[in-house]
Amino acid sequence: MLLKEKASELLVDSNVKRWVDNLNSQSAKRIYLESLAKYCLFRDLTPSQVVEEFKNEDLRKEAEDRLEDFIIENRGKHTPKVVNNLLTGVKSWLKHNNVQLLRRINVGNVRLTPTIDGERPPSQDELRRILGFADLRAKACMSLLAFAGLRPSTLAGLQLKDLPELKIEGQNVDFAKIPAQISVRAQLSKNGRPYQTFLIKEGCDYLKDYLELRLKKGETLTGESSIISFGSRARIKSFSRKAVQRMTKRVFDQAGFKARPYILRSYFATAIDNVRTIPFTHQQFYLGHTGPVEMTYTVHKRLPEWQIEEMRKEFLELEKYLSTIAKPLQLPIEDEKALFLRLVRKLADDYPNIDPMKIRIELAKEKPEFTVDDEIEAIQDSIRDSIRKMTRRTGLTKEDDPLSQLIIHSDELDRYLREGWTYQDQLKDGRIIIVKGGS
Question: Is there a single domain that holds both residue 68 and residue 50?
């Protein structure tokens, strides 16, 4: 019997269904249920029989022995992380039935990732070549992974209504704004909380061509339609997580690129890390990680319009690191103060206990109609205070403007030295303090 069939069969048991429904995330529901199904197949037992065996004192040792045998057998077939998921799934089922596993069972070093050793994200040139092997559907799918940073499981559940700026008129598809906003619903997010990201122009073009093709084939598209579909004639319209991965892997194989489909999300994460003007808190939000921006979005249900537009501008700067097209969309001429504000916010990321978002909120309480100059001054004051404290702690004696000091990573030192900065000191975490000018 296939594992998926066995997992579906287990859900007939109301107690198993209650256990699965009580789990936090969709990925946990799938992984834990399949883990229990695999163990039931291994032992040829039902879930309730597994529990009875552990509750029976006469059979307890044998039950733990068999579970250990199960883990040892799988240690030779899977990575430590997969094996750990198997054990955690079975333990979760036992705990749901008030059974605590006392024996410590070794799964191996879960930090080891043998299947991805040596794996690296493609370069922009490599991704352009890979996309050349993809049809319109695959291009749309892969661009949402690489250019918006979505997880395969998130993309599989995404619907047209999740792109609020996508417009369909007749057989034409367009975007009101580019980069286009993508609102990820809580049920599609790994941490169970909603977040937002954007899709750059190249991705919007691929998605537009793909959706218009579906319209020309006679498919009716509504807000509930899946972003990626099997087609109008297919019994199952929407893609699953595995379908997204299989399609992407097939394109990788045709292009001769050896990596997992998830590497496209790493491509996005690497690119976003290269843009120094994007605050770390925003980077985490785009990747669907927990952070201050995500908390604001969760509490207030939506981000203010000014913040969405600011993030859209950040993506314009990010585009040159993501796009595989020779001439990506250029950043338009904008207010110099707004650009300087983003640079100051990025600088604030290097200092502990400074959160530009909290500073903005406090500033709004004191002065509802605050200006860009007010915000720049408030963040600069916080940076100065932080550097003064650091100066006292490290024994530095430089008394001029604290903003002439920077904290950088060691691999950036050569560039700053060439630009006229001077080495001053090194912090415990390896980062380096430099000052303008000096001897």
Answer: yes
